[in-house]
Every structure is written in structure tokens, then in C-alpha cells.
Design a protein that fits this description.
mainly beta; four-stranded antiparallel beta sheet; about 300 residues
């Protein structure tokens, strides 16, 4: 329904409000007004010193992964007159960027994941890094984890709950060449070069891949949940005690519920002190031996 022929080689885009921010290779950052999608038009640009590969917009700033010129921070509060206010020269070639809170996470081809404090955009500084085993091409941050597309080394999952001390929490060696990554709920979507789109799902630690399935006799009445987990049991016999354990995606047990009486009923599990995220439930019943997933979402 519309297009705009940028002057360079488009590598990445980020939509914010009525504007599309384009990482346009040798032509730097291009800002396109898309309020009328059938007639987009360029309103401003900033010719970065390197090769613009990745872009992320947060507030008044566009953060550009500019290959050999590292991270460039562009003030776009006036989209028709963008200007650079700060930069950080990463040690390798900056390919992709994700901004979360006060930190910019840069996938830096030869130097892995670089974590840069951008609380003062005019003076960014690196607080730590994690040197992935291959070539970091893309990064996506969700919760406490940075998911890195690491080319020949597949997907690397880095715990960044303490940005000054990142550590690898897990990995998956994809069959192709991992070039791009996106995370939604418990799924990771990977652009895997010659093997196309790969979709992965989180399982608990030490859980066999083919063991993950829904409980046939247990039903979540709502999923995602906000204030309590509502479960309907239909096991058809009496048992003195029912134990339900709630685990996070790392396989850590975060809560245990102990219930008594009939299995054939509805139960309500309290989640007052449990943060939003993806979790797994398991009972002590031989009739329902498998894990099943529940999403806790306490936001609006």
C-alpha cells in the first residue's frame, strides 16, 4: 500500500509514533513519516560515520548500531533535525541494539554482548560484556535475559539481572546460522540463515523436550492470569493431599501449594508476591505427570 525508496541499503527499522526510523547502511539513519502509510515521506536524516546496521528508539533518542563506528546516540526529539549527542566505540563491529531502562545492549560481531550505560546519553560508558563464542549479530532483551543470535554458536541466553555481571544461563545450537532473534512469552523466534525460521519454546531445566504437554485432566480457566491462578481438576477420585509446585523458566521452584480433599473441583492459587513472567505448574499426581505453562501478567 506504500513504500519509500531510501538512498542506502536498509538493514533495520524501528517504528515509534508516526515515524519509521531506518538503519540505512552507508546512508545512516533515515526518518520516515508514515502517518499516511500510502504516502510515506522522509522528514530528516543523520549520516552516521559508520554503516548503520541496527536501530532502537527510546524516548527522544535513536540508538544506532553503526558497525565499526560503534554505538551512536541521535537526538530525534525534532525528527526533522536529528543530531548526534553521544557515542561509544565498541571494540568490534556493532550489528544490533536493544535498549532497556538505562542500558543499551549491543550485539558486537567480534566482541559478543556489550552492555552500555546510557543514563547520560551524552556520555555513555560500558559497564560489562559477555564474549559469546561466535559472532553476535542480533540481541533481544526480555526480563532478566538477553537473547543473542550468535551465528554458528546458535542462540545464547545471557542473564543480565545484574548488568555489571552478565553470565550465560543457557543456549541452543540451532541447525543453521543464527542471524536474528525475537522473544514473545515463552517462545523464541530465530532467523536461522539457510534453515529459515526456527521457533523454540522454553522448557524447565532437565525436562525432556518430548515430555512437555498439557495435563489432560487439568484445565486453566484463564491464561494469562493477573490476580490468581484458577485451575479446574477432574481426576475422578479422592486423595488426602494434592501438592502443586510452581516453577520459573530456570527450573527454580518459586511456590508450593498444598491442598486437601476431592480432586474433582476448582481451586484458586494465590500469586500475590510472584512477579509477572512465564511459569510452569506440576502436581504430585501420577495421573497428570507432565508440566504445563501459565503466564502471569499483572500489568493493565
Amino acid at each position: 500500500m506504500g513504500y519509500y525508496d531510501t538512498p542506502g541499503w536498509t538493514w533495520d527499522v524501528y517504528l515509534s509514533g508516526n515515524y519509521m526510523y531506518v538503519a540505512d547502511g552507508g546512508s545512516g539513519l533515515r526518518i520516515i513519516n508514515v502517518s499516511n502509510p500510502s504516502n510515506p515521506n522522509e522528514v530528516g536524516y543523520y549520516d552516521t560515520p559508520g554503516w548503520a546496521f541496527g536501530v532502537y528508539v527510546s524516548g527522544d533518542y535513536a540508538y544506532v548500531a553503526d558497525e565499526e563506528a560503534g554505538l551512536r546516540i541521535i537526538n530525534v526529539s525534532n525528527p526533522s533535525n536529528p543530531n548526534e549527542i553521544g557515542y561509544y566505540d565498541t571494540p568490534g563491529r556493532a550489528f544490533s541494539i536493544y535498549v532497556s531502562g538505562n542500558y543499551a545492549y549491543v550485539a558486537d560481531e567480534e566482541a559478543g554482548l556489550r552492555i552500555i550505560n546510557v543514563s547520560n546519553p551524552s556520555n555513555p560508558n560500558e559497564v560489562s560484556y559477555y564474549d559469546t563464542p561466535s559472532s553476535a549479530y542480533d540481541v533481544y532483551v526480555s526480563g532478566d535475559y538477553a537473547y543473542v543470535a550468535d551465528e554458528e554458536a546458535g542462540l545464547r541466553i545471557i542473564n543480565v539481572s545484574n548488568p555489571s555481571n552478565p553470565n550465560e544461563a543457557g543456549y541452543y545450537d540451532t541447525p543453521g546460522r543464527t542471524d536474528g532473534v525475537y522473544v514473545s512469552d515463552s517462545y523464541v523466534y530465530i532467523a536461522d540463515g539457510p534453515t529459515g525460521l526456527q521457533i523454540y519454546q522454553f522448557l524447565l531445566v532437565d525436562t525432556e523436550e518430548n515430555a512437555y504437554s498439557s495435563m489432560a485432566n487439568v484445565k486453566l480457566l484463564k491464561n494469562p492470569v493477573k490476580d490468581k491462578i484458577e485451575v479446574e481438576l477432574n481426576l475422578g477420585y479422592e486423595k488426602k493431599e494434592l501438592v502443586i509446585d510452581l516453577y520459573n523458566v530456570l527450573g527454580e521452584r518459586v511456590k508450593t501449594y498444598k491442598l486437601f480433599g476431592s480432586y474433582h473441583r476448582k481451586i484458586y492459587l494465590n500469586i500475590d508476591n510472584i512477579p509477572s513472567g512465564v511459569y510452569f505448574l506440576k502436581t504430585n499426581s501420577r495421573e497428570v505427570p507432565n508440566w504445563f505453562k501459565v503466564v502471569i501478567s499483572k500489568g493493565d
